Amino acid sequence: MKRFADLFDRLDQTTKTNEKVDALAGYFRETTDEDRMWAIALLSHRRPKRTVSTTRLREWAAERAGLPLWLFEESYHVVGDLAETIALTLPESGAYSDQSLTYWINYIRSLGDLEEAEKKEKILSAWDQLEKRERFVFNKLITGGFRVGVSQLLVVRALARFTGIGESAIAHRLMGAWSPDDTLFKDLLLADDPVADLSKPYPFFLAYQLESAVSDLGPPDDWQAEYKWDGIRGQLIVRNGELFVWSRGEELLTDKFPEYHALASALPDGTVLDGEILPFRDGMPLPFGVLQTRIGRKNLTRKHLESAPVICMAYDLLEWGGRDIREQPLAERRKLLENLLATTPDQPVLRISPVIGFDHWGNLAEIREKARDEGSEGIMLKRKDSPYRAGRKKGDWWKWKVDPLTVDAVMIYAQRGHGRRANLYTDFTFAVWDGDQLVPFTKAYSGLTDAEFGELTAWVNKHTLERFGPVRSVTPFHVFEIAFEGIQESSRHKSGVALRFPRMLRWRKDKKAEEANTLADLKALL
After folding, report:
1. Measured between alpha carbons, how far is 78 from 505 in angstroms, rounded to an integer?
2. How many CB atoms lie within 10 A of CB 249?
3. What pLDDT score does 492 carry?
């Protein structure tokens, strides 16, 4: 655990890519295979399930530290991170253990079936055995909040350096539903056959947002344009007569979409499609919120399937006849995809993402402005000679989204941030007018500079009306332009609407609160 805590510190204390890769590669060289597997799992967001409530952890930490609970809670609000607050307030014991990361992971998981008194005894014992840095990591793991500023790409790069295996092969081998409980390091990364697991998807190729002029991309003939669909990015895999559906977040979703099951026999063995799991009816995409109504359900009923029908909007072919074709140019993969779908028995749930014809960049810009009429977020631009890469790489794929919808709203609640922003108010609730009443309709926490957050924090401290734990209601005064990608009706919100990706576009110091938009203005955007 000491070694892993050292790694956490090194990763947390630098923003330099090479230093992070060096730290990861060094850790992989020095630790055991078991701890390597758990480190890879944790850095790939495969965390152990929470086995103790944060309420109990706060109570037990306050008791062990000899603090009244209210003082501990106030400290928590100032620090902004529960794991760090506990690590800072607990007394040092001096009787430290030297157990491994794997030991402590199993220790945490063993708490799930214990009675509360036993859980408390085990947690207090663990805190006594760990020094402050290790205790902090332990707390992060047990609260389910373990995160560190490392992308999957950096983990792949470090493992490639450690093993001598190419980055593309490493990225592929890390995909899928493996677990340190039933997978050895040598089987996961050193085995010769990277597709031994029939269900294993490929790493997704991700696009960057286009921020410069589209004409800077060069001749239009070099590019393929498609609509950017608003669903769940997924891969449909048919191997050995079985169908597997994977999300970009590496979740196996096969059972969530029974509509796709017929594709197991309709598509040839050794086929992997990249596309969008898209809510769709009467020839048009439905809002993303429709898809959300069925994503989190354990059991899908006929009603759910009928109210939120889906298709697969396929836009790339990654494997054909059991052969990895990602290195072939996009234009060649597209021809194979078109031929495949043309010769596949009619499947209503499978469509091909149409290519948008355009003569010049100005023509495409006009098409982009009308993308919402097609149920799309904008345009995807893909270089015709590009291979299908792993992860987010600049140059070959770009997303050119439509300008966001906007509304002017009044800030009515403020809450402190977390971690390094724990001393600032960064999370805000916004409202619009409904008659002479302000109705809350969204929260947002991004879009401002650190200086603006600091200015707002000073203002909130002077203009608080009420306190609700970490949340403060404030005088309705400041107006912000809120940007968002979409809007839909919602019975779960008092306003009756829900926004997609809300953020603060700018602070409207030129506007008074009474000049903010109305609920009717919002609903007119539906």
Report:
1. 27
2. 11
3. 81
Provide DSSP, 129-186. HS-HHHHHHHHHHHTT----S--HHHHHHHHHHHH---HHHHHHHT-SS--TTT--HI
Q: What is the pLDDT of residue 303?
A: 86
Quick check: helix, strand or coil at residue 428? strand
Return the beta strands (E) in 435-514 as ranges.
437-444, 464-468, 471-474, 479-484, 486-489, 497-500, 503-507
Residue in the structure block whose two tokens are 């190419």 = 166
Residue 190 above 60 pLDDT?
A: yes
502 has a pLDDT exceeding 80: yes
- Give the span between the Cα atoms of 231 and 392, in whole angstroms: 19
Q: Angle at CA 403, nearest 5°, toward 387 and 248?
A: 40
Residue 334, amino acid: R
Q: What is the DSSP letter of 215?
A: G
Q: How far is CA 131 from CA 62, 64, 338, in A?
A: 18, 15, 60
Nearest-CA neighbor of 285 among 257, 261, 310? Answer: 310
Percent of residues, the chain, with pLDDT higher than 70: 98
Count CA atoms within 13 Å of residue 249 on its CB side.
5
Print burial letters for 288-319: b (CB count within 10 Å at least 16), e (below 16).
bbbbeebeeeeeeeeeeeeebbbbbbbbbbbb
- Partners of 488 in the β-ladder: 498
CA atoms within 13 A on the CB side of 75: 19
pTM of the model: 0.73
Query: What six digits make up the tokens of 323?
Result: 């052969």
Question: Do residues 456 and 448 make contact, with C-beta atoms less than 8 angstroms apart?
Answer: yes
Amino acid sitting at position 351: R
Catalytic residue annotation: 228
Name the pairing type of β-strands 486-489 and 437-444: unpaired
- Could you tell me the CA-to-CA distances from 259 to 198, 231, 291, 304 in Å, in that order? 21, 16, 14, 12
CA 366 to CA 387: how far, in whole Å? Answer: 28
Residue 134 CB neighbours (<10 A)? 26
Which of 306, 300, 316, 302 lies closest to 286, judged by CA?
306
Each residue's pLDDT tens digit, 428-448: 999 999 999 999 999 999 999
Q: Provide the strand spans (E) within 159-261.
A: 205-206, 208-209, 223-229, 232-239, 242-247
pLDDT digits over 299-328, tens only? Answer: 888 888 888 999 999 999 999 999 999 999
Cβ atoms of 410 and 437 closer than 8 Å: no
User: What are the structural domains of the chain?
Assistant: 2-142 (1.10.3260.10), 205-280+308-401 (3.30.470.30), 405-523 (2.40.50.140)
| Token couple for 519 | 């609920």
Grade residue 194 by pLDDT with cuts at 50, 70 and 90.
very low
pLDDT at 419 over 70: no
DSSP 8-state symbol, 194: T
